[in-house]
Every structure is written in C-alpha cells, then in structure tokens.
Fold:
Amino acid sequence: MNKTILSIFFFICSFPFVVAQQKNQSISLHSKKISIELDRTGKIVSFNYHDGLGDRNIIAYTQLQSFKMQQISLVEQTANKSVKFIHQLYSDSLQQTCTLTEIFSADGAGISWKLLIKGNGENFSVPIRTVVEYPA
Structure:
C-alpha cells in the first residue's frame, strides 16, 4: 500500500516557547512574547503579541481540497511542549482517506505549526490550503 507523506512547517513567531495549558474548551500555547489559543479542532482562534493591545481575533486552519472530516479530532498534549491534533479525512470524489496530523510545538525559534499528511491506498495529489483570516 502506497503512502503519501507531506510535512510543512509554518513558523508563527520567533520567541521561546514556555508552556501549553488546556482551559475550558480551548488550548492556549504561551511563549515569552506571544500566546495563541486553539479550539478543540486545531483552529487558531486568537493571537496575543503581549504588547498591551490584547487579543487579536484571528482564524487560521488548514484544508485539503475535496476532503471532509470523517472523525472528530483527537487531541494529545505532551510534556507541556506540544499539542497534536489528529484528523481522519475522507474525499468522496477521490474515494480516498487520509490522516492529517497538526502539531504545534517549540522548536528553539518559537511556536511552530507542522502538518503531516498520510494517505491510505493509492497516491493522490490535492491542493493544500492554509487559511489565515485577520481580523476574523
């Protein structure tokens, strides 16, 4: 069975990562100079640069064209340094499933956003869309 693997890194900011905390129905990641808040599906819903201006409403997420969520996201938080969202996706038009894993973590340069896409079955190619809406 062929596997399609793609890894993309998005650097959100270049400051040291401090801690990840879960509160209410969201997860907050904090560095010395920034904080981001993620909803339970892995969307970035808030950004704070710690400049005294408060939270900025932002929406940021990744989509694979023609794929839809097949199963609710699994959320794993490891050693207060990273948060992982695992999405099971399905495409009717391609008759294909895949797993999208999003990892938000420290990397020495700050908070990074890493995507790993593993296809099941035959190789396929679809556009990957990362959406950032500011202000939301």
